Amino acid sequence: MKLFETYDLNGLPLKNRIVMAPMTRSRADNAEHVATPLIAEYYSQRASAGLIISEGTHISPMGIGSINIPDIYSKEQIEGWKIVTDAVHQKGGKIFAQLWHVGRISHPDLLNGLLPLAPSAINPNFKAFLKKGFVDTVTPKAMSSAEIKSTIKDFVKAAQNAFEANFDGVELHAANGYLFHQFFAKCANDRTDEYGGSIENRARLLFDVLDELKKVVDLKKVGVRLSPSMDHTFGINVDEETIPTFEYIVKNLNDYNLAYLHLSGFTLAEETNPMNRVIETAKHFRKLYEGTLMINKGFDKETAEKAIEDNVADLISFGELFIANPDLVERFIGTLPMNKADRNTYYGIGPIGYTDYPLYQMKV
Fold it and tell me: What are the catalytic residues?
């Protein structure tokens, strides 16, 4: 099967085309937001994936949007992530760090009483995850030009920190209604300066970050994640400029020789065949993007193999299947039954529902 073939990720050899998608698991239960040996165990258990993309890791204290996230802006956090990357590499795996700024999907209780930063002062009317549970978001502070420039520097520094922590690359999280996506979307961005108004202006932040990144890191080790079809969630609503905006972004990403473009799928509960939306979105942007395309959302072994065989994508990322099946690659290869994930333990403290899912044991 093509799914099990090796793949050259712009110079980085992958042992298969199966990617572990980034998934928030909230296990860094310490005041310093440092990755722990338990987190290292979790990722190393899944090192048979061709590539692991880490959970979103906040690039700065003002980028925080959830509790117990292993972040990447301090020296202590770099050292914590070194434990993780070393554990993955010892198992022969590859791992990228997902760089994350949540923008307005946050709350003052996570930001020392400060308002979340966003392109505009528009409440997403969503939820933020605090120690007391999920709470309503607030109206954020519209970023000043100085705050935008500072955030660009934070992304660059976070990327440098990731490479210092021995990650094989980084992924810019420009999807799922977070900061970059907020700049892209008219429903979240009513600015009138160079970061608002036209499609080119609303896309500017992503390209400003990439332009600064290429001065200090190899862009062949940088991926970008987008979610063009996301609608009516995380405060994002599709409008007549949504697809033209993402077409502009994807076409212009061709100028950067990135590791990959990662499309995060979006489906509606009422859709009888939700995979159709994921595949059609991927096909649309496949025509526009010249580099490696990775796609995500609800794939199993058979649908993933078909997507690769049909040249819809080069790599497939899997989320929930990897939560419950640390040996997902081996289960795919052997056509073995799957563990079922327990949603009640997706977020929490300790190993339960995190590192205690069993490997498949062959019956003698």
Answer: 178
d(CA 92, CA 57): 23
Kindly give the pairing relationship between strand 7-9 and strand 12-14. Answer: antiparallel
Q: SS3 of 86, please?
A: helix
Does any domain span residue 359? no
List the domain range (segments joined by +) for residue 155: 2-345
Among 357, 343, 257, 288, which Cα is nearest to 41's? 357
Q: What's the total number of domains in the chain?
A: 1
Q: Show the tokens assigned to 334.
A: 């052997």
Residue 88 lies in a domain: yes
Is residue 329, in this structure, part of any structural domain at all?
Answer: yes
- Identify any residues that bridge with 128 across adjacent strands, giving them in sequence order: 135
CA pair distance 135, 298, nearest whole angstrom: 28
DSSP code of residue 296: E
The CATH number linked to 85 is 3.20.20.70
Separation of alpha carbons 107 and 129, rounded Å? 9
Residue 206 pairs in a beta bridge with none
295 within 8 A of 317, measured Cβ to Cβ = yes
**Per-residue pLDDT tens listing for the chain (364 residues):** 999 999 999 999 999 999 999 999 999 999 999 999 999 999 999 999 999 999 999 999 999 999 999 999 999 999 999 999 999 999 999 999 999 999 999 999 999 999 999 999 999 999 998 988 899 999 999 999 999 999 999 999 999 999 999 999 999 999 999 999 999 999 999 999 999 999 999 999 999 999 999 999 999 999 999 999 999 999 999 999 999 999 999 999 999 999 999 999 887 767 777 788 899 999 999 999 999 999 999 999 999 999 999 999 999 999 999 999 999 999 999 999 999 999 999 998 899 999 999 999 865 4
Residue 195 resides in a domain: yes
Q: CA-CA distance, 241 to 272, in Å (whole number)?
A: 27
Look-up of token digits 């529902």: 353
